[in-house]
Amino acid sequence: MNKFLLNLLVFISFTTLASAQDFPFGKFTVDEMHLKNYKNDTSAHAVVLNEFGSSRIDIAGDDHIKTFFKYHTKIKILDTKGFGKGTVAISFYDSQDTHDEVIDVKGTTTYIDESGGIKITELEPSKIYTTTENKYWKTIKFAMPNLSAGCIVEYKYTKLLQGFGRMPAWEFQDDIPKVNSQYEVHIPAFWTFNAMIRGPLKLTKSKADVEKECFSSHGSKCDCSYLTYGMADIPAFIKEDYMTSSKNFLSAIYFNLEEWTNPYTNVKNKETKEWKDIDYNFKHADYFGSQIKKNLLNPYIAPVIAGKTTEIDKAVAVYRYIQKNIKWNEINSRGSDGVKKALDKHTGDVADINLALVAALNSAGIKTDAVLLSTRVNGLVNRLYPVESEFNYVIAKTTIGTDTFLLDATDPTLPFGMLPIKCLNDQGRVMSLDKPSYWIDLVAKQTQNTASNLEFTLQPNGKLKGTITTYSMGYAAFNKRKEIKKFNTVDEYVENLDEKLVKTKILKSTISNVDSLDVPLCEVYEVEIDVFDNLNHNRMAFNPVLFERHTTNPFKLQERTYPVDWGVSSNDRYTLTMHLPAGYAIESSPQPAGVALPNKGGKFLTEFSGAGDTFTYSNVIQFTKSVYAPEEYPYLKEFYNKIIASEKTEIVIRKK
Predict the structure, then answer these.
(1) How far is CA 143 from its chain centroid?
(2) What is the pLDDT of residues 261-280, one digit of tens each?
(3) Are residues 607 and 632 in the same domain?
(4) Of 421, 441, 461, which residue is a domain's last?
(5) Of 643, 651, 451, 649, which Cα lies nearest the Cα of 552?
C-alpha cells in the first residue's frame, strides 16, 4: 500500500470559488456512442468515460458552514451485464444532531433506437426516492431510464454535509475501469487537513493553486487552496471472496481535519490528536466512559450472579443475561445513549449491548474493559492520524485466571468467548478506565471444523439408505445455529433442508445441542438417496462425495494483490462407508490424493479402502492459517483445482 502525506495549510473564506473543471453535461461523441468494448479491458461490461468531483467548504443559504460535494459521472454500458451501473444509491448522514442533504440530482440516458437515431431520456424527479436505513443514515435511490446495451448513462448531484470536519474521500478505482477521474478540493484557509493516498496506482495529475479572496463572510476574507488530483486509464478493482474491506486496497484519497481557526474570533482549535487524547475523550465521554463504571448495573446483576461461586460462572451468567435481555437493532456504533435505557427497553445498538456487558461484568466484580474496533467491511483504522470516527464497533475484554476472553453479546447464538467474523479485523483499542489504553490483536481462538460420517447400504431398488452424522464445531457450529434459528422450529429447518436436497429424502432426524452453545452441534439424519434407477445393470458408477462437492474454484484472478482472509482456520473431514448388496464388487476406485500448501498452510488428503462388499472413502480439507499473503494466491488457486479434480472421480461397481 503506497502512501504519501500532504499537509494542507489553508485559511477559510466564503465567496464564489473559481469555476471547477467539470466536463459538460449531456455531451457525447460519435465514437462514444458506437464504442463496443474498452480497449484496455475487453472483458469489462461497462466503463466510466469521465468522472469529476469537487468539494469545498462554504457558507450555505442558511448562513451555516457546510461542505459542498459535487459529483458527476458518465458511464458507457457495454452489454446487459453492465446494467447494474444504471441503478444508483447515494447514502447520506441524517441523525438527531446532524442533517446532511442530497440536492440537484440530474440524469440522462443516451441511446441508439431501432431506426439508428440517437435518443436522450431524462431522469424524472418522480423516480427519485429516499429510504431510511436506520436512525443515522438515509439513501437517495434511482434507476436510470431506458437502459440498453451500448447506451450512455450520465448523472450528477450535490451533497451538502453539515459542518466542515468531514471532507469527502475520493475513490479513483471502482469495479469497472475508468478512462478518467478527477477530484478537486477547495479549502478555505483557516483549516488544516492531512491528505493521504492509498492504493497501488499513481496520480497522473496533481496540482495546487491559490484562489484569491475566495471567501467573505461577516467581514472575514481569505484565500483558498485549490487542489486537483487526477488519474487516467484506471483499471477495475476486482473483488473476490475472502477479503476485508476493498477500501483497504483500492486507490483513493482521504482527508482528516488536523486543526482550524475560527474565522470570526481567530481562536485556534486542534482536531488531530495523539492516541492519548482520543483515549481521554472516550474515557470521559457520557456516551462511553460513563456507561461502563463499576457498580452502575448492580441492581440488574445481583440476582443474575446469586449463587454463582466462581468468576467464570458469574461471567457466563452475565453474558447470557445481556444476550437475552437486549436485542440488537442491527446498528453498529461506538457510543451508547444509555445502557440502563437499553436494558429497560430490551433493544439497542452494538454499543448499548456491549457497553452494558462491560458495565454488568464490572458490577459483578469481574474487571472488564471495552475494546473499540473497526469491522472488516468498515476498513482498517489509520494509526498515524487518530480519528475517533474510524471506529464503528465495541466489544468487551475480560481476563479470568490466565485466560483472556473477547466478548460480543449482540448475537444470542454466539458462545462465550467467540467473536463474529466481522470483528476479526487487525487490532482493537482496549479502553481501560484506570490505566493507559493499548492495542490487542483481534484473533479468533476457535476454528471452523466439521466432521461428517455417512454410512449407507445400496438397496436392490438402486437407492442408498443409511445415516448421515455431522458434528459442527467452533464457527461451523455458530453458522449452522444461525441457519436453524431463522426458522420457527427445528422441524421447519429440517423440512426446508429436505426440500433443497436433490434426490434425497429425509426419513428421520435428530439435532442436538442447538441451544448448548459451548459444545458441538450434532445432526443425525436417516435418509434415502436415489443413485441408480435400479440394479439391473452389469456396471454402474457414482461419485462418493454425495453432498457439498467442490465444483467451482473461488479464486479466478490471474493475480491477486490483496490477501486471502478467511478470518479463521478450518478443518473439514468427510467419511463415507458403503455396503454393497450380494453379487456386486468394486471394479475401480479413486486413487489416493495428497496435496499440501507451502509453509504448512494446509492440506487435502483422500483415502479409499475396500474389503469384500464394504468400502470406505474419506477426505480432509484443512487450512491452518486464517490469512494468506498475495504471493500465496497461486498455490491456493491450484490447491482448489486439485480438490475439484479429485472430487470428480467416480467409483465403479459391477456384478460379479
Answers:
(1) 25
(2) 888 888 999 886 788 989 99
(3) yes
(4) 441
(5) 643
